[in-house]
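We modelled each protein-ligand pair independently. The example shown here corresponds to the flavin-adenine dinucleotide entry; the chain sequence is given first, followed by the ligand as SMILES.
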Amino acid sequence: MKGITVNDDELYMIVEPGVTYGEAARYLASKHPDVVLPSVPPSVPTATVAVNYLEGGDGCGPGYASRFGSAFQTNEAFIMGMELVLPNGDIVRTGSWSRNDSASKFTFRKGHTIPLHELFVGAHGAFGVLTKMAIMLCPKPYDVIGRMYAVNKVEEGAELIHKITRKGVMSMGSLCSWIFAPMQRADLAPYPWEVTGGKTCLPDDYMKKWRDEIFPGCFPGAKSGLEGFYIITYQPVFDEFEKEAVEKTVEKAEKDWNLRRIDTDKMFIPAIEYFLKEGMARGFPGNTRARYLGWRGGGNMWPMLGQCGYKDYPKIHNAVVPIARKFGFEVAMHTFYHYGRTGHCRFIMPFNRMDPDECMRVAGATLEIINTCYELGLTNNRAFAIFTDLEWQRSVPGYVNLIKSIKRIVDPNGILNPASGING
Ligand SMILES: Cc1cc2nc3c(=O)[nH]c(=O)nc-3n(C[C@H](O)[C@H](O)[C@H](O)COP(=O)(O)OP(=O)(O)OC[C@H]3O[C@@H](n4cnc5c(N)ncnc54)[C@H](O)[C@@H]3O)c2cc1C
């Protein structure tokens, strides 16, 4: 296919900008069915592969499931090499690919001397224009073991996701507020405008009743409608022996740790989340992010996204939810966690973009949430524009000076993406 070259023997793909996740997944499934992408984001299948890896996108997939999973925190770690054009017309290549006659151009990430990939990652094109990217591929899993568990409190969920993934019972997990499930079934569980007209947040007793209808019997004893979280964990396996071994380990963990399993065969709304993420663990692009856009009038704000340790999830969640509710919104926490190091944490706040009052309120909530999350240490893994400035205000001066100096050398006239926040 134009824009993609695959070597399924040595497990890499060279992809050009413009090729979407949908196209890449279809191409691999039809022409190279034994290999899959190492990581896919939950976003939209129209997102482009190379730029998402260049941005340090967040997601999951079989690449995170290797025992080296803890080394791969966001997607850029799967980049094997890049080709870019600099403002002076130079063509630069990174990693082993920088040597013309290297026998490991697309298979040895570091290469000789300094690999240079990271100079361009997260720079939003401010240092050079990407023309090609080599990405590692993974063998297609034989199967995926996946489970969904219920916990009442976010603190309990954070401990559990760490325990499951850190001990390697299953390598990947996602912890979410229960409200994220209906947000993704806008067809079956749309925003209930009749309750408050969207002027104020949904009352606690309404939330509680709604939650218990969607997740019957899952949250015994939960006192408030703001309680109720689910964990989806998954482990790709590569043959029937590994499958049997992982299933036994999971069974033991379920008994030893009293895990409360959510039966997705019986719960139609939670099932969509489970199957979307299970597909991602197999290397197929998710589409979860597109689904919630229709929940409350077509608008969605991610007031903040970033990386933090699992112990920070509850602190950040418990600070963000009251702010969103004060401004009249429901907000869902969504996280990804791989092997017990830092995890991705983001908030999803749907709003009615046709209503000027909601737009003003969402802006107010977002500003307050951003400041709160920065105060609590959440590190924005895709800072741009004003976020670059906010990150730099908190950075050691030497780091900022070095980046500015490199930018002045590479792009003295500041012609590449002035909106990135890296100029100046
Ligand atoms: C509803 C929704 C949900 C999403 N959820 C997630 C998610 O959960 N996880 C996730 O990882 N992502 C998520 N995303 C982001 C998405 O996956 C894409 O990574 C992102 O939208 C980039 O889009 P794009 O590929 O169209 O690139 P563009 O929007 O075209 O570009 C993005 C940036 O890269 C720069 N750029 C573009 N081309 C080049 C080039 N050739 N060389 C150098 N720089 C270049 C641009 O200047 C720009 O700064 C979501 C997006 C949407 C719309």
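The two ends are 40 Å apart (CA to CA).
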